[in-house]
TrEMBL record, chain A:
Annotated transmembrane regions: none
Ranges occupied by WD repeats: 92-126, 176-218, 224-266, 268-309, 361-392
Stated name of the protein: Guanine nucleotide-binding protein subunit beta-2
GO biological process terms on file: signal transduction
This protein's UniProt keywords: Repeat, Transducer, WD repeat
UniProtKB/TrEMBL annotation, chain B:
GO MF term (any one): GTPase activity
Name of the featured protein: Extra-large guanine nucleotide-binding protein 1
Cellular component GO terms held in the UniProt record: nucleus
Biological process according to GO: G protein-coupled receptor signaling pathway
Subcellular location: Nucleus
PROSITE patterns on file: G_ALPHA
Gene3D superfamilies, alphabetized: GI Alpha 1, domain 2-like, P-loop containing nucleotide triphosphate hydrolases
Family according to the record: Belongs to the G-alpha family. XLG subfamily.
Protein keywords: Calcium, GTP-binding, Magnesium, Metal-binding, Nucleotide-binding, Nucleus, Transducer, Zinc, Zinc-finger
InterPro entries linked to this entry: Gprotein_alpha_su, GproteinA_insert, P-loop_NTPase, XLG_GTP-binding
CDD domains hit by this protein: G-alpha
Length: 401, 970
């Protein structure tokens, strides 16, 4: 078979797939057409919002003092490039809260994991990593250990209580190696200190058994229904920890069942750029995504439909990328960090932007790279490429909606 | 220079504002400005940062205006808080006015201007009355006042714009400008705005947190504008001063004049007064200013909440000496990334007088925070680079040290304790150490290469007796005499670190100075140092600079990162391994070798599998051929021809066949890695047998037809029998050839230094070179491209080494979107995307054209024009080509491959300069030859060196530190 012939066949196959995908979309929209809403609205994915409005829901309002930056965590130190450019900054790449709500772990390009006490804004641990290029970190549900992963393709587990050596470095408690690409994201399975799911640049997600250090199952990879590009993010369903969702550079998000590694339960199309961040909705039936195309979307895992798009209209084409998202405890608010340093608070129901943290006082000076809500929902922590993390909390009183 | 000007300037502002203003408009505006607060507060914090730090440089001096202030204060209190305004804020505001006024007064006096200083001695009024009172004082000195006002004007605008002062404040100032028509007022209006801010905020916010914060910030920063503004205006683009300038233009010359005057002040003051401890006779006006900061809060109260008295426990900022009570300290100091500094002081060098306290924790912090937290703060305080002793402040034998030298000094086995900034002398031979012009104070480790050679008058002795070229002091001479050393005739001694001494020019040791028991006693009486016991025999280790571990803050600076990237198959892995073998004493540890061994063995099974697969194919083919042949010959006899014809030269015996089938099955199922390392021992004999089998050898001879089999497979297959032995230890060459050693994970890095040249005349430049550490980072190419998420992680690399395999020009690979494309074109695409990546837009690129050895062979057979990018390659030797005698063209002086290399290099260079308008460096490499890789990496080092020399040609040779140095110098 010649190259040209192969090319031709490939083209034809791609076309078929696209046509089928389009048909699927049409069919979905048709199915959604049960409440007599006009076609335009549906196609704009405003169905939910319209319905909500018709039910008399009004968007939330936020004043500039409702969310206040109450802590500024500094401690990731400067990067040095000799010569012309002098001091650079070490971007904070990832953060995670503990379950018991007052501690944060953050990973930065200075090659350190720092564990913060969010109440005093002090460091309790600073772990120097063997590989400085760290991309993700996570707290174990018990708060006793932290995991991190990065370009070394290894997910390392550190025990916070283990004694440090003479330089004050903690030894690696466990190395989870097996990925063939960088580890882009990791999350502990809720309530289990021994299981962890990672996503990787090798197009797979892996469920690990930490006690043995072995892969329990691999999602994607050589199997047909896996991601076709780097997986950037995972999120485990809080109410059913067997289900998790992954977002990838192939612009899709996929839903997986940890018991069925062979194929994805469902694939969610819709984004036009890399899906940088996925996060389960608190009720576990929906999940949100954030993408390089500048939008956040809300998908329903049971129907496979896209419920909502959160998009700020930008004049030019290059909308800032969404780097990270998080939901409030009730799910009414969606926090989304953008590559231009904005951090929007969206009303998930009405798809309206209610607040931009970037416009508040003490906001970050660089790209928001990660954000997370404390487990009790009382505080939001944002990490930025300006080397700092900031904790935001409600500054005012509001009536319950 | 800047801060001095600002001092005057600030005085001027206040002064002018005191004079020129009339009351009514302000009172009217006061309430209106209140809502702006929120916007303005945060930015004020930003400025205050600078201000506090600057403040630092000013010496702490005695309060002069105490009476004034207290008067203010009491009056203010007497007035009571007539509105909602919190008394605190008003107080501080008032005080400030008072202070500034008096400062300006003093300045005027100091300048010797003819003015009889402003009679407005009653600045102690509440804000509303302020304006009127100020205006009344104005009449006398319109001229100087205008000057000050205008000079300051730009500064104030700067600060206000920096502050992001909201539009309202601008409006206000404009109105004011219109009303009074003088630039002085403008300055005033601005500052007034700020102050109003202060007073306004409480009423607006009640007791909310934010308000507290803002109040605090304003309080802290306001008086310091005096000093910061200078800095701000210094680097302030004039365009941003914007429309408000209108009034200012008129008085521009006056402003300049004022600056000239101030220069002198600043000079005196900028000598790092408190550091060199020379500033005792400083100007009174400076003292006034400093004091103002000191006394802002009532003595002994917390700087943030103004509560408490001098007996309440407080934590002190190690930069600005601000004191905070236990309720405020966490707020005021935040997360303390550099130890106990107020948030605004982070990033500023510490107060040298507090160096002794670094890392010593107070009880208060221990109470507030838990152990782990305290430990981290103290560690940060001691070890963060900002808090380190600035090396330029320590002069040894008249030469300021560089970072490395200082570190050497501090980390030697017997370091000078509690090293303070200053001038020292150091006797490298004996280890004697002392302050310049004084007797020795300590004996430290000898033979440290720090500073210049010692001078004869280092300790200012006048005895005409010399030790190691230094004229000793009388005390030392006395000691020598008591120790029994013959000092008649003004001898020149040569004293070693162990105390043995000899006269200059003589070989025999005359004795040991510290040998006698009494000597130590004498030394103690004369307060001269004696060597500590641990001093001896450490000289050698100390000099081995490279092997010593560096502290974190230094390590980062000296480490130069080289990023090595290229598509997979471009030889980056080989180069990386080569570098490891070249520069590391132990390139691979035992464990690594063990892993590599398993990997190589696994690879060999893989190659064998490919061979066996090929064998089956060849067998089938030849069988088919034979059948067809048979068929065509005798169509009826196929039935029993089978048994006879089953054997071809590719057939193997059933036992081997079983093994082969099993191996192939494993390969298909993709579990080769899982099975093989363990099964190696078992199957090694079989492999040996297999390899000796004629069928395999026949297949091996046709290996060119097996596309799956990599080039290097033959290297290993020919050694297969040895390699599969359990006791096999991979040699460096084996490792070099092996696939997949570094590519199994995405990233590998190795730290190395270039070995020092063998010659032992190490001049200082060479020594400096050897201090440079390099880190070669090699990343796997997979997943590169436009949406590559992690290229920006490597923004701190100094140079990108981009590797392209020359032999790729006729190879094809699958693109990201599934289409088959020429690998050279893929490399080019990748090159373009990396070069234009915003992270690397200022970086140097070194293009490594790799695999030249393969290329040399290939180009003789396959024309370079196979790749569409190179379709205009028509080398000069086309005559030979047309005659189809490529292989003979070696007779030509530049070979075809050489020409092709230059052609490709130029192609890339053009591409690069069209994309970036810079110069691309190109190097030719044969990855498997150590010398060639070494050359390429040294070339990269040279490029970095040129870079630095080009950038800092006027600065010291330690250009790496130049940025750091400049940040200390103001």
């Amino acid at each position: 078979m010649s190259v040209a012939e192969l090319k031709e066949r490939h083209m034809a196959a791609t076309e078929t797939v696209n046509a089928l995908r389009e048909r699927l979309k049409q069919k979905r929209l048709l199915l959604l057409d049960t409440d007599g809403l006009s076609w335009e609205l549906r196609s704009m994915n405003l169905a939910v919002a319209t319905y909500a409005r018709s039910q008399g829901k009004t968007p939330l309002t936020f004043g500039p003092t409702d969310l206040v930056c109450c802590r500024n965590l500094q401690g990731h130190t400067g990067k040095f490039r000799g010569g012309l450019l002098g001091m650079l900054t070490y971007e904070v790449y990832s953060l995670d809260w503990t379950a018991e709500k007052n501690r944060i772990v953050s990973a930065s390009q200075d090659g350190r994991l720092i564990v913060w006490n969010a109440l005093t804004s002090q460091k309790t641990h600073a772990i120097k990593l063997p590989c400085a290029w760290v991309m993700t970190c996570a707290f174990s549900p018990s708060g006793l250990s932290v995991a991190c992963g990065g370009l070394d393709s290894v997910c390392s587990i550190f025990n916070l209580n283990s004694p440090t050596d003479k330089d004050g470095n903690s030894p690696v408690a466990r190395m989870l190696s097996g990925h063939k690409g960088y580890v882009s994201s990791c999350q502990y399975v809720p309530d289990e200190d021994t299981h962890l799911i990672t996503s990787s640049g090798d197009q797979t997600c892996v469920l690990w058994d930490i006690t043995t250090g072995l892969r329990t199952s691999v999602f994607g990879g050589e199997f047909q229904s896996g991601h076709t590009a780097d997986v950037l993010s995972v999120s485990i369903n809080g109410s059913n920890s067997r289900m998790f969702v992954s977002g990838s550079c192939d612009t899709t998000a996929r839903l997986w069942d940890t018991r069925v590694a062979s194929r994805a339960v469902r694939t969610f199309h819709g984004h036009e750029g890399d899906v940088n961040s996925v996060k389960f909705f608190p009720d576990g039936n929906r999940f949100g995504t954030g993408s390089d195309d500048g939008t956040c979307r809300l998908f329903d895992i049971r129907t496979g439909h896209q419920l909502q798009v959160y998009q700020q209209q930008h004049g030019d084409n290059d909308a800032p990328h969404v780097t990270s998202i998080a939901f409030s405890i009730s799910g009414r608010l969606l926090f989304a960090g953008y590559s231009n340093g904005d951090c929007y608070v969206w009303d998930t129901l009405l798809a309206k932007m209610v607040l931009d943290l970037g416009s508040l006082q003490n906001s970050h000076g660089g790209r928001i790279s990660c954000l997370g809500l404390s487990s009790d929902g009382s505080a939001l922590c944002t990490g930025s490429w300006d080397t700092t993390l900031k904790i935001w909390a409600f500054g005012g009183h509001r009536r319950v909606i | 220079m800047p801060s001095g000007r600002a001092n005057v300037g600030d005085g001027g502002v206040q002064y002018s504002f005191a004079m020129e203003y009339h009351g009514p408009p302000i009172t009217r505006h006061l309430p209106r400005a209140v809502p702006i607060n929120v916007d303005r507060i945060p930015v004020a914090a930003v400025v205050s940062q600078g201000s506090l730090s600057d403040k630092l440089a000013l010496p702490v001096v005695q309060p002069i205006l105490a009476s004034d202030i207290t008067k203010n204060f009491s009056k203010e209190l007497g007035l009571g808080s007539e509105c909602l305004v919190s008394p605190k804020s008003v107080i501080s505001f008032e005080r400030q006015i008072g202070d500034d006024d008096s400062v300006s007064k003093e300045l005027l006096l100091g300048l010797g201007t003819e003015t009889t200083v402003s009679p407005n001695s009653g600045p102690s009024n509440h804000d509303c009355r302020l304006s009127g009172e100020l205006s009344c004082s104005g009449t006398l000195e319109i001229n100087p006042d205008g000057r000050y006002g205008s000079g300051d004007f730009s500064d104030v605008i700067n600060s206000s714009t920096e502050l992001g002062a909201s539009t309202t404040s601008h409006d206000l100032s404009k109105e004011l400008l219109a009303g009074v028509g003088s630039s002085g007022t403008l300055g005033f209006s601005d500052s007034f705005d700020k102050s109003r801010d202060l007073s306004g905020s409480p009423s607006e916010f009640g007791v909310s947190n934010a308000c507290k914060e803002s109040l605090d910030i304003n309080d802290l920063s306001q008086p310091d504008w005096a000093s910061t503004e200078s800095i701000l205006s210094f680097d302030y683009p004039s365009s941003r001063v914007s429309s408000l300038q209108v009034g200012d233009c008129i008085s521009e010359p006056a402003c300049d004049e004022r600056r000239n005057l101030v220069v002198t002040f600043r000079d005196i003051e900028s000598e790092d007064g408190d550091l060199t401890e020379e500033l005792n006779g400083a100007e009174p006006e400076i003292t006034g200013l400093k004091k103002e900061f000191e006394v802002r809060a009532k003595k002994g109260t917390c700087y943030r909440c103004f509560k408490g008295n001098r007996f309440t426990e407080k934590e002190v900022c190690i930069v600005c000496d601000a004191k905070y009570c236990s309720n405020c300290v966490l707020r005021a100091m935040g997360s303390m990334p550099e130890g106990r500094k107020c948030v605004a002081c982070i990033g500023s060098p510490i107060d040298e007088s507090k160096r002794g306290n670094l890392g010593k924790c107070s009880r208060m912090l221990k109470r507030l925070l838990n152990d782990l937290e305290v430990r981290h703060i103290m560690k940060a305080e001691k070890f963060c680079s900002m808090n380190q002793l600035p090396s330029e402040y320590v002069c040894v034998n008249g030469k300021p040290l560089c970072h490395e030298e200082l570190h050497l000094l501090q980390s030697c086995p017997n370091p000078p304790k509690k090293l303070k900034p200053g001038n020292y002398w150091y006797d490298k031979v004996s280890g004697l150490w002392g302050k310049e012009g004084e007797k020795p104070s300590k004996i430290i480790s000898p033979h440290l290469y720090v500073g210049d050679p010692i001078k004869a008058d280092a300790s200012n002795g006048n005895t005409q007796v010399f030790i190691n070229g230094r004229e000793i002091t009388k005390v030392e001479l006395r000691m020598l005499q008591l120790a029994g050393v013959q000092c008649a005739g003004n001898p020149h001694f040569w004293v070693n670190e162990d105390g043995s001494y000899q006269e200059e020019g003589q070989k025999n040791t005359k004795g040991y100075i510290w040998g006698k028991a009494g000597t130590k006693l004498v030394c103690a009486v004369l307060s001269l140092p004696v060597p500590s016991k641990s001093t001896y025999s450490c000289g050698e280790q100390v000099n081995n600079v490279v092997s010593r571990p560096l502290p974190d803050y230094l390590e980062q600076r000296t480490l130069q990162k080289l990023l090595l990237i290229g598509l997979s198959g471009s030889g980056t892995s080989t180069m990386f391994k080569q570098a490891k073998i070249l520069y590391k004493d132990v390139p691979f540890t035992e464990d690594e070798r063990e892993n590599i061994k398993l990997l190589i063995q696994g690879n060999v099974y893989g190659y064998l599998g490919i061979l066996l697969e090929g064998r089956e194919r060849f067998e089938d083919e030849s069988l088919n051929e034979r059948r067809n042949y048979n068929c065509s010959r005798s169509p009826g006899q196929t039935g029993h021809a089978d048994e006879n014809d089953e054997k071809t030269i590719y057939s193997i015996c059933p036992r081997l066949k079983a093994f082969s089938d099993w191996l192939l099955k494993i390969m298909v199922s993709g579990t080769l890695e899982a099975v093989f390392p363990a099964a190696t021992r078992e199957y090694a004999p079989l492999v040996e047998e297999l390899w000796d089998d004629a069928a395999i050898q026949a297949t091996y001879d046709r290996r060119k037809e097996l596309e799956m089999l990599p080039n290097i497979a033959s290297y290993f297959l020919e050694r297969a029998v040895d390699i599969l032995r359990p006791d096999y230890i991979p040699s460096n060459v084996d490792i070099l050839y092996a696939e997949g050693i570094t590519s199994s994970n995405g990233l590998a890095c190795v730290d190395f230094t270039f070995p020092q040249p063998a010659s032992d005349d190490v001049d200082s430049a060479d020594q400096h070179d050897s201090l440079l550490r390099f880190q070669l980072i090699r990343v796997q190419a997979r997943g590169f491209g436009e949406n590559c998420k992690w290229l920006e992680m490597f923004e701190d690399v100094r140079i990108v080494i981009f590797s392209v395999s020359l032999s790729d020009y006729d190879q094809f690979a699958v693109d990201g979107d599934g289409t088959l494309e020429n690998k050279m074109m893929l490399s080019r695409k990748f090159f373009e995307s990396i070069v234009t990546h915003p992270t690397y837009d200022q970086l140097d690129f070194l293009l490594v054209l790799n695999k030249f050895d393969l290329f040399e062979e290939k180009i003789e057979q396959v024309p370079l024009t196979q790749c569409e990018w190179f379709d205009d390659f028509h080398p000069l030797m086309s005559r030979h080509r047309s005659s189809n005698s490529n292989s003979n063209s070696i007779n030509n002086s530049p070979s075809l491959s050489q020409l092709a290399f230059h052609y490709i290099a130029v192609k890339f260079k053009r591409l690069f300069s069209s994309l970036t308008a810079r110069k691309l460096y190109v190097s030719l490499v044969k990855g498997l030859e150590p010398g060639s890789v070494d050359e390429a990496l040294k070339y990269a080092r040279e490029i970095l060196k040129w870079d630095e020399e080009g950038a800092n040609f006027s600065l010291s040779e330690y250009s790496m530190y130049s940025t750091e140095a400049s940040s200390f110098s103001h």
